[in-house]
């Protein structure tokens, strides 16, 4: 069963670089509904069961869904459905740390070791807190054997891991590089940042999320699930292709990614979150520039210059500069991006059944291309 629904609404998607010089966001025309519809048409297929896209901003709005939310019942994807936002969680964690900095409860230039004594190995150099947020800490990657093996995933899907257990799998390795000299994307830094937030505040990550972000912005459908493996209704089911058979992986404890990737939300709430953030409703003018400042260092793997700020990722899509974050969990790939002046805001969620070689499903790249295009101005 294949189904595409197009309505007028809000927010959409991004995840592929172009080499075109960035245009002024104010030059944007209205979103291109034909391109957006085509980007998500034809679902379900062998790699993706469903998709939803939501575009909003001063330049216009659009929303659409495609595919099914359940391969057994063939129920359509709901535009208001919940999904796992994966690594987009990192933006929320970065906001919490920046809020604590503006409250003078954390000094971003001080080492992590000051706030979390005994967590990092004694032979590690001082790791400034700010380097956790822009992936320049040098902390090694989480190293859990089997984490990308479907059989291991299914066998361990309901297990609880403490943040310390997760971080310790990485810290048995030497530091990758001297902090501040390169950029390497890693969950380790953000799980550590979540530990820092809980230690400094004396409150759980879930409580900090509510008090600092979701309640102030009225995001009633965004939450941290702790050990609850379920997704609330409505939600598209997530599937994993295991030897040619789709296995439902919707239910899964998210304690391994934790503060780096466990939040559950909706497309509308993602759009409201980034809108409120860019409007200065969560952090003040002293901290705001950190969201849009990419360090002038190379990527550790030599793939190019750094692209992450303290919390966000900078992308150029069809000549438009956008800021945001992608995220993925088993059965879910999603993201939120916006121009800095909020002329265009894009949120999306798709349900891939396989991992693509570069980590981004082909449909996400199609959505990114379509969402960053505009109709000619009248």
From TrEMBL:
Occurrences of domain Beta-lactamase-related (ranges): 39-357
Keyword Cytoplasm: no
Source species, domain of life: Bacteria
Entries under InterPro entries matching the protein: AmpC-like, Beta-lactam-related, Beta-lactam/transpept-like
Annotated coiled-coil segments of the chain: none
Signal sequence, renumbered to the chain: 1-24
Keywords: Signal
UniProt-recorded name of the protein: Peptidase
């Amino acid at each position: 069963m294949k189904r595409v629904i197009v309505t007028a609404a809000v927010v959409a998607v991004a995840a592929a670089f172009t080499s075109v010089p960035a245009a002024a966001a104010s030059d944007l025309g209205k979103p291109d509904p034909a391109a957006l519809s085509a980007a998500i048409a034809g679902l379900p297929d062998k790699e993706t069961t469903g998709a939803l896209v939501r575009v909003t901003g001063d330049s216009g709005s659009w929303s659409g869904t495609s595919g099914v939310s359940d391969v057994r019942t063939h129920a359509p994807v709901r535009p208001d459905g919940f999904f796992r936002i994966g690594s987009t969680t990192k933006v929320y964690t970065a906001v919490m740390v920046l809020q604590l900095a503006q409250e003078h409860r954390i000094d971003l230039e001080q080492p992590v070791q000051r706030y979390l004594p005994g967590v990092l190995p004694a032979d590690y150099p001082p790791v400034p807190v700010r380097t956790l947020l822009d992936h320049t800490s040098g902390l090694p990657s989480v190293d859990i054997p089997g984490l990308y093996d479907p059989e291991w995933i299914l066998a361990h899907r309901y297990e609880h891991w403490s943040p310390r257990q997760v971080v310790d799998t990485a810290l048995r390795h030497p530091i990758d590089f001297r902090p501040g000299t390169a950029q390497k994307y890693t969950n380790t830094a953000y799980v550590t940042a979540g530990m820092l937030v809980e230690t400094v505040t004396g409150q759980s990550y879930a409580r900090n999320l509510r008090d600092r972000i979701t309640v102030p912005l009225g995001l009633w459908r965004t939450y941290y699930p702790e050990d609850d493996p379920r997704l609330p209704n409505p939600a598209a089911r997530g599937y994993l292709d295991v030897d040619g058979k789709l296995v439902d992986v919707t239910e899964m404890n998210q304690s391994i990614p934790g503060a780096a990737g466990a939040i559950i939300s909706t497309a509308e709430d993602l759009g409201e979150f980034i809108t409120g953030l860019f409007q200065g409703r969560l952090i003040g003018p002293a901290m705001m520039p950190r969201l849009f400042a990419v360090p002038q260092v190379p990527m550790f793997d030599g793939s190019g210059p750094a692209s992450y700020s303290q919390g966000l990722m900078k992308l150029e899509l069809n000549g438009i500069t956008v800021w945001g974050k992608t995220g993925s969990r088993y059965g879910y790939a999603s993201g939120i991006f916006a121009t800095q002046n909020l002329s265009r805001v894009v949120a999306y969620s798709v349900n891939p059944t396989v991992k693509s070689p570069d980590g981004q499903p082909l449909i996400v790249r199609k959505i990114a291309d379509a969402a960053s295009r505009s109709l000619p101005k009248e």
